[in-house]
Amino acid sequence: MATLSQSQQLLAKTMDDFVTNEITPRLEAIETTRCIPVDLIAKLGKQGLLGSLVAMEYGGQAVDYLSYGLIHKAIGGVSHSVRSLLTVHDMVALAIETYGSTTQKKIWLPSLATGQQLAAFALSERQAGNNYQEITTTLEPHSHGFYLNGCKTWISCADLADLWLVFAKWNNQPVALLVPKTLPGIQIKSIDGITATPAARLNHLTFQKVELTEDHILGPIGMGLHLVANTALTLGRYSIAWSNVGLLRSCYLASLAFSQQHCVNQQPLFNYQLTQQKLTNLLVQFKAARSLALEAGDALQQRKNSAIGAVMLAKYFSSQQATQAVLDTIQIHGAVGFQQNQRFHQWLLDAKLTEVIEGSTEIQQLQIAQLYQSITLIDE
Ligand SMILES: Cc1cc2nc3c(=O)[nH]c(=O)nc-3n(C[C@H](O)[C@H](O)[C@H](O)COP(=O)(O)OP(=O)(O)OC[C@H]3O[C@@H](n4cnc5c(N)ncnc54)[C@H](O)[C@@H]3O)c2cc1C
Q1: In CATH terms, are 6-118 and 120-222 the same topology?
Q2: Residue 48 CA, ligand 1 centroid: distance in Å
Q3: Where are the domains of the chain?
């Protein structure tokens, strides 16, 4: 079992302080304006939290995967909106670092590693969500390059980002493309009224004869989904797993504090055995999700064969537990649980969202069962 080093413990403390000082006081504003303030994004960049996995030679922090998890636990524990900005950005940076040419890395990584430029991940289409193999966006050759045609939807932070990682098909072969937002032929339309991660600014993107060259293609042709998208999605799932660990911790702490302060029949609610049962379950949910996230981080760091499965297990477990934990937290708080200022309604929507995105609960059930048919993975 992975344990935290001294520097990782220090990072966890630094992150808790950062969240307390920079994010918590602005949560209400972030969610009511549905916007992450520009100066907060600048602070995330200055703190090295955008593109934090990127190698030092490109100006990144080269944090290890456990440290990465701690960052996402601290931020996701209070705001899945802010966390999702980091996640989609980091998914693109990781894809470039893993599959990019030397030129692509030199062009994009230094500005992504410092947050001077932002990136978004554009895979989903209206009829291609979990079944993203069915994407219909196409790359068609012409005399001096390619045209990109098609639509993407539900793309987080696309309007904030300078660069999009777009997935398309060329001759029915999946390709990953680095598409700067400013190219002619692109239209961006914001999707309003999204209730989960309200400040993640979802967008619908349309590409009409957007001119690209081979320099825009990331990674091997034909491997755009199997390698590039899946590498990025594994990081996305890992980020979600740790965010939910943060959320589960928040649920436990809120429920414990309330049950100790609130009296029923002149007794603290805590004194009732059924409350203690709920608190015990919340604690176990948090600890178990944390153990799976630690195991996933260790597997990623050591590049184990089991890493993809370990990340799926951590995301699958944490997202369902987080949803249930928020419901129990509301139950413990009674009527107070429905007050807007408690933010439990937002936690509930955000937790449930994590059962839908980056591979829904149902899809993870299928994939985990299929992956773990190879029993050598179980004990790794
Ligand atoms: C807030 C938010 C942010 C997002 N950000 C991004 C982003 O940045 N980039 C991006 O590319 N996309 C993004 N998405 C899109 C997201 O990835 C998709 O919504 C997700 O993949 C699910 O796809 P879908 O909504 O089409 O659902 P579907 O895939 O149609 O699934 C609908 C339901 O059917 C179930 N289902 C599907 N297949 C099966 C099966 N074989 N067996 C049983 N049940 C099944 C699913 O589990 C789900 O419950 C975002 C979505 C939201 C809501």
Answers
A1: no
A2: 30
A3: 6-118, 120-222, 225-377
Tell me phi and psi for residue 184, to 5 degrees. Answer: -65, 145
**Is 123's C-beta closer than 6 angstroms to any atom of ligand 1?**
yes
Tokens 């990331």 correspond to 218
* Own/partner pairs, 270-273, CB within 8 angstroms, 24+ separation: none
- The Cα–Cα gap between 303 and 301 comes to 5
CB 303 within 8 A of CB 310: no
Tens of pLDDT along the chain (380 residues) come to 567 899 999 999 999 999 999 999 999 999 999 999 999 999 999 999 999 999 999 999 999 999 999 999 999 999 999 999 999 999 999 999 999 999 999 999 999 999 999 999 999 999 999 999 999 999 999 988 999 999 999 999 999 999 999 999 999 999 999 999 999 999 999 999 999 999 999 999 999 999 999 999 999 999 999 999 999 999 999 999 999 999 999 999 999 999 999 999 999 999 999 999 999 999 999 999 999 999 999 999 999 989 999 999 999 999 999 999 999 999 999 999 999 888 999 999 999 999 999 999 999 999 999 999 876 777 77
Say if ligand 1 is within 6 A of residue 188 CB: no
Kindly state the DSSP code that residue 47 receives in the 8-state scheme.
T
Burial of 123 (0-12, 13-18, 19+ CB in 10 A): buried
Name the residue at shortest CA distance from atom 35 of ligand 1: 362
* Residue range 120-222 in CATH 2.40.110.10: yes
Statement: the pTM of the whole predicted model exceeds 0.85: yes
Pocket mutation for ligand 1, best pick of 133, 203, 360 (most atoms within 8 Å of C-beta): 360
**What CATH homologous superfamily does 6-118 map to?**
Acyl-CoA dehydrogenase/oxidase, N-terminal domain (1.10.540.10)
The third-level CATH classification (topology) of the domain covering 225-377 is Butyryl-CoA Dehydrogenase, subunit A; domain 3 (1.20.140)
